[in-house]
Amino acid sequence: MADLYSTLGIARGADDAAIKKAYRKLAKELHPDRNQDNPKAAERFAEVTSAYDLLSDKDKRAQYDRGEIDENGNPKMPYGFGGAGGPQGGFRHGQGNAHFEFGDADLGDIFSGIFGGGGGRARGPGGNFGGFGGRARKGADIGYRLQVPFEDAAALKPQRITLSSGKTIDLKLPAGVETGTQMRLSNQGEEGPGGTGDAIVTIEVRPHRFFQRDGDDVRLDLPITLSEAVKGGPVKVPTVEGAVMLTVPAGSTSGKTLRLKGRGFHKKGGGRGDQLVTLMIDIPADDAALKSFVETWHGGGNPRASLGV
């Protein structure tokens, strides 16, 4: 993989906001749902997401900038160790909408094998060799990527995921969940001499065909008829948790936005965003009765007067 900063098209030293902005832009352009006939876009999407996962983690980004880990988050091994198939070589496996990967090489085990130390320690004449001693290390963490439907993310519906151990769990999504959110499951990783590692689940919220996210709010362009706009009245509107009735005010115009309280995403600090419904009047392309009416109707005035024309 190329340099992670180049992958996202940003400079080293970019702040968190710039990293997130670059990722969101690229993820929207490259998402597989929008590029079903372009496998290269899917590969690029995976690279961009992987780069964002590492750079959005403050500790891992610092390690990467110092040259301690590579673009996959694996340690850069000393003394030429860690080639293909080496201790830090990632193992990846796909299962349904999730995939996982192994990481975190156990340096203690490697140096123990070289210098003959026992019990996870590498010893020299005076005890621990070169500072590579200490207690046995935990097993490696296992990373998973889980795709979550837009509506499920907004409503915080539990998501079922199968771990590499074969164990299936129902994952409770956190308030404020978004693409890139990471969840840590304690003791669900690899076993090691010092204990079991964790499972780290990275969430990817799928884009929706007509809903769009705006912070904690959900936006929707709603087509309505000319009759519904002129006379007003109740119309059925889809939301992330099913259809509801919304009252359109009489005399509404295209672009008017109505608010459905509490129909958006759950907020981190409590409460919930809204659904913002923008009315779009749908005029039939060839309606003889409508054409006949407007030919004899002279109302409406000049709707462009405020523009000075």
Q: How much helicity do the residues have?
A: 10-25%
Strand order of the largest sheet: 1-2-5-11-8
Query: What's the CATH architecture of the largest domain?
Result: Sandwich
Roughly how many Å apart are the termini? 56 Å
What is the radius of gyration?
27 Å
Number of helices: 8
Global structural class: alpha+beta
CATH superfamily of the largest domain: Urease metallochaperone UreE, N-terminal domain
Rough outline: elongated
Helices and strands, in N-to-C order?
HHHHEEHEEEHEEEEEEEEHEEEEH
The biggest sheet amounts to: 5 strands, mixed
Q: CATH class of the largest domain, please? A: Mainly Beta
Number of domains: 3
Low-confidence segments, given as residue ranges, are 78-97, 99-133
Which oligomeric state applies? single chain
**Overall number of strands:** 17
Kindly identify the CATH topology of the largest domain: HSP40/DNAj peptide-binding domain
Strand content: 15-25%
Mean pLDDT: 82
Gist?
The chain has 309 residues and is α+β, with helices and mostly antiparallel strands.
What would you note in describing this structure?
- With 309 residues, this protein is of the alpha+beta class.
- The protein has three domains: 1-81, Helix Hairpins, CATH 1.10.287.110; 91-104 and 140-207, HSP40/DNAj peptide-binding domain (Sandwich); 212-284, Urease metallochaperone UreE, N-terminal domain (HSP40/DNAj peptide-binding domain, Sandwich), CATH 2.60.260.
- It has helices spanning 4-8, 16-30, 39-55, 58-65, 107-115, 150-155, 226-231, 288-296; strands at 92-95, 98-102, 123-124, 127-128, 142-148, 159-162, 168-171, 182-185, 191-192, 195-196, 199-205, 212-214, 217-225, 233-237, 244-248, 257-260, 275-282.
- It has a five-stranded mixed β-sheet. A four-stranded mixed β-sheet has the order 12-13-17-16. It has a two-stranded antiparallel sheet with strand order 3-4.
- Helix 2 runs antiparallel to helix 3 (39-55).
- The longest helix is centred in the first third of the chain and has 17 residues, at 39-55.
- It starts with a helix and ends in a 13-residue tail after the last helix.
- Residues 78-97 and 99-133 have low confidence and may be disordered.
